[in-house]
């Protein structure tokens, strides 16, 4: 024990959900955090002497978690944070995917760097308060001088572990794609910026707070060449790949018509399968696709709220997991899931699985496992998603003493999923407390939300009245 490294001791949690390889749940649980990593996990009365002595001598910070469930921080594998500016936009409220995109692309074309930055910070505030400690963000529009750095700097300010996905669109409407020409980029510029971002920011080390991901937006907005070139660049530099795939019936029809293949066949043809690849949605992944993904370890970001909101369908998550497909959870962009609550997303995953496949389709503990270990696996990380010595110190605690969990003490772990989604009482990311007593630390949310409100209004008004803006 290096006395110079700060010690944080969390103890007396009603239940400590480790999500370790044995899936241990420890009553009266305690965790010792030393610097960015977990040093020890066990029962509170078994705290090793050096830590107990450090506590007694005032050399450690202690947090009492009576009445709380303590667990690994939730991992969000799919989001578009800029969409927090276009929640509940009336003309996009009741459409399916392609119609929804058609309504929103012109608005998003007016994004500015400040909008990207402020919306990323706002989205991360929401995620942190919902129990999420690691998030990906798929940013695929760069209008008006916006850069991925606008989101990266937001993550640094919020202290969240971040997988920044350099998205892209290159096939505009005039070339047979879905997005308007004004929001697509040249492919050589996309690849050059991708290379620049990897060299500048990607951290492959254990406990990394920032990794870069290459993420051409979807089969209907980029070319085969860009998909292939992105895969080559990702493999040459050791970064992951991410895109949208097999989201709904129109998406399947587009793939059959343009490429003569199912989305899974198309992904395989492009080299977009493997442990370093994860695809969002996969609602319509067929049996052969599930076998392919299982065989190759290709991951899926399951986004139940978004899939319901856009009436895309019910992803066959149980079949995927039985076939060995890594599955994580994603809240998806705030315009297709207007509430980005990670614990709430786990609850919806359970409920939707049961609507589709019966009451045994998903247990509460499976939902929590997908939201933690599953997400870590999908992002290609072995240092988050479980609480054990040597793992990154990403932890969240939920206080179950409120009215929303009254009477649920029979099984507090299941109650996290079955009862109303709780807000995080405590959140620790990389050993730093980010949420304490249910409030963000080092973040004044009032001015942040005030600015977000102004920018959201500017964005939508400017698109509605383009000549007066
Ligand atoms: Zn998405």
Key phrases:
single chain, 469 residues, alpha/beta, Urease, subunit C, domain 1, 17 strands, 37% helix, Amidohydro-rel, metal-binding, hydrolase activity, acting on carbon-nitrogen (but not peptide) bonds, in cyclic amidines, zinc, deaminase activity
State the shape: globular
CATH homologous superfamily label of the largest domain: Metal-dependent hydrolases
Helix content: 25-40%
Task: Report the sheet-strand fraction.
Answer: 15-25%
State the end-to-end distance.
60 Å
CATH top level assignment of the largest domain = Alpha Beta
- Would you report the number of β strands? 17
The radius of gyration computed from the alpha-carbon positions, rounded to a whole number of angstroms, is 22 Å
- What structural category characterises the helix and strand content? alpha/beta
Number of helices: 15
- List the domain count as a whole number: 2
Could you say which small molecules are bound to this protein? zinc ion
The largest sheet, given as strand count, sense and whether it forms a barrel, is: 9 strands, mixed
Proper CATH architecture of the largest domain: Alpha-Beta Barrel
Low-confidence stretches: none
What is the average of the pLDDT values? Answer: 95
The oligomeric state is single chain
CATH topology of the largest domain: TIM Barrel
Family: Belongs to the metallo-dependent hydrolases superfamily. ATZ/TRZ family.
GO molecular function, one term: deaminase activity
Protein name: Cytosine/adenosine deaminase-related metal-dependent hydrolase
Keywords: Hydrolase, Metal-binding, Zinc
């Amino acid at each position: 024990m290096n006395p110079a490294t700060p010690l944080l001791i969390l103890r007396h949690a009603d239940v400590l959900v480790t999500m370790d390889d044995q899936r241990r749940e420890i009553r009266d649980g305690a965790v010792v955090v030393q610097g960015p990593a977990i040093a020890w996990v066990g029962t509170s009365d078994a705290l090793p002497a050096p830590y107990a002595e450090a506590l007694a001598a005032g050399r450690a910070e202690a947090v009492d978690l009576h009445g709380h469930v303590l667990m690994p921080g939730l991992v969000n594998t799919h989001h578009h944070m800029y969409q927090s500016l276009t929640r509940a936009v009336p003309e996009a409220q009741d459409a399916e995917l392609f119609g929804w995109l058609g309504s929103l692309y012109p608005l998003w074309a007016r994004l500015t760097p400040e909008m990207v930055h402020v919306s990323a910070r706002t989205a991360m505030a929401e995620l942190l308060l919902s129990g999420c400690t690691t998030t990906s963000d798929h940013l695929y529009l760069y209008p008006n001088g916006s850069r991925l750095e606008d989101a990266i700097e937001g993550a640094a300010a919020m202290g969240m572990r971040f997988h920044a996905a350099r998205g892209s669109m290159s096939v505009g409407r005039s070339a047979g794609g879905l997005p308007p020409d004004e929001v697509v980029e040249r492919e050589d510029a996309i690849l050059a910026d991708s290379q620049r971002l990897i060299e500048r920011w990607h951290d492959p080390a254990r406990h990394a707070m920032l990794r870069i991901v290459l993420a051409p937006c979807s089969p209907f907005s980029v070319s085969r060449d860009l998909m292939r070139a992105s895969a080559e660049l990702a493999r040459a530099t050791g970064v992951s790949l991410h895109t949208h795939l097999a989201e709904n019936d129109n998406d399947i029809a587009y793939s059959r018509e343009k490429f003569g293949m199912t989305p899974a066949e198309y992904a395989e043809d492009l080299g977009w399968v493997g442990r370093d690849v994860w695809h969002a949605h996969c609602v319509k992944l067929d049996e052969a696709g599930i076998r392919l993904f299982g065989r190759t370890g290709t991951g899926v970001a399951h986004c139940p709220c978004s899939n319901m909101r856009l009436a895309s369908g019910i992803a066959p998550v149980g079949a995927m997991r039985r076939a060995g497909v890594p599955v994580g959870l994603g809240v998806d962009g705030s315009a297709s899931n207007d509430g980005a609550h990670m614990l709430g997303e786990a609850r919806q995953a359970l409920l939707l699985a049961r609507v589709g496949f019966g009451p045994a389709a998903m247990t509460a503990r499976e939902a929590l496992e997908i939201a933690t270990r599953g997400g870590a696996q999908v992002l290609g990380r072995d240092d988050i998603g479980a609480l054990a010595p040597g793992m990154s110190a990403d932890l969240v605690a939920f206080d179950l003493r409120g009215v929303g969990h009254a009477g649920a003490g029979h099984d507090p772990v299941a109650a996290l999923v079955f009862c109303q989604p709780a807000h995080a009482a405590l959140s620790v990311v990389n050993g730093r407390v980010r949420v304490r007593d249910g409030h963000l630390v080092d973040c004044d949310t009032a001015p942040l939300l005030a600015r977000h409100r102004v920018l959201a209004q500017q964005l939508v008004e400017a698109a509605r009245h383009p000549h007066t803006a």
